[in-house]
Amino acid sequence: MFQPGNRSIKHTRTNFAMRVNSFLRQLRTHPTLNKFVIKFGLRRKHTRHVNRWIRFCSVSRARHITINFTPGVKDFFMGPANSKYIFPLNVFSGPEGSSTHVRTLHLGYVCLDTTSSDFMIFANLKKLTLHKISFLGDLQCLMLPECNSLECLSISFCSLPGLSTCQPLQRLRCVRLHYCYLKKIELEAPNLTSFDLTNQPIPFVLGGSLNVMEANIKLLAKDSPYGDNLDYIYTELPAALSHVHKLSITSGLFVYDQLQGFSKTSARFINLRHLTMYLPLYGEPKSISGILRLAYLLELAPALEELELHVNGGDVDVGWALRGNMLPYSHNRLKRVLISGASVWEGLMELAYYIFRSANRLESMVLDPKIRIGAPQLDGWMIDIGRETIKKLFEGEEFQSIITIL
């Protein structure tokens, strides 16, 4: 790790800058570069050196630019803005520079100043990656609309209150937003195909995005007691991603008998074929109703063909018994189901039984007693007990051709 007070690190940074300067001086003419990459833990006090490199990069008409100063920064630390190098966007609009040649731009641990009045458009930029960036100005209403050719946008660990576009981004295909703690998302991207979000639950709008094939949603925990995100999953997600084909959701779920109700909506995942849920569970392993709230997934996704549920936590109990108190919901498309961590929550066995009775065309259901996500993992003897418990619950002849116990 780079530590600001470490003299050897300061010396290393100085030596690095000198080596880069020496290398660039050896180039008598400015070649046309395909790629220009700097990855080192530099800061604002190295501006004099870095400015020279950026000017060289612009004059050399580099197509793929990476300026990444994150080495040495701890994982979740975004860093103070006043220590970060200010990336000079205006350099690309100077008399010798041009932004039209840039195809990909990857910036890490810098300040991005979008207030420059002479900033010219990155007309041919296809991929923009911003990691641990501090913004001086409004990203969405100045910079993004000018990137008419943008196909992929990735923003992670940036202090960004919201992301919206002032006009449609017609070519945008892929959006990735991780740990930016956004309060709102309003994107106009009619040809969007992939959406990846790690954030606290917020309403978001993907206006006109009817072609989203795949979405990955990781919901950060709420602060309120029993504050899981199931209501949000059942209401906001189908409203925003009604046409998605493949969906992955990661979210904690509280399992208590008092948690029986949940919000419903008329919105549906009308095209959803494959749903994967990673659910760290918290609560009472013997609770049935808390987990049976997941049964609503069958109603929410009428076209669902494959369902994966991965859970952790809980305990193994040999005294479980299938109840079958909940009336099945007839589902005509579901073919394959996989449940891992199946032996540690009694409600999961009841859910599996409910799905078995509801899915009219079910071809296979795999019940895995091992925990595949998070920690702690089960000891071998607990897995063996869990496996025998599952076998005892599903030993009837009607289960034999469909249910596989790993």
From TrEMBL:
Pfam families registered for this protein in UniProt? LRR_At1g61320_AtMIF1 (PF23622)
Q: Which SUPFAM superfamilies match?
A: RNI-like
Tell me which domain of life the UniProt entry assigns to the organism this sequence originates from.
Answer: Eukaryota
Q: Which residues form the At1g61320/AtMIF1 LRR domain?
A: 63-369
The protein's name is SKP1-like protein 4
- Which organism is the protein's source? Zea mays (Maize)
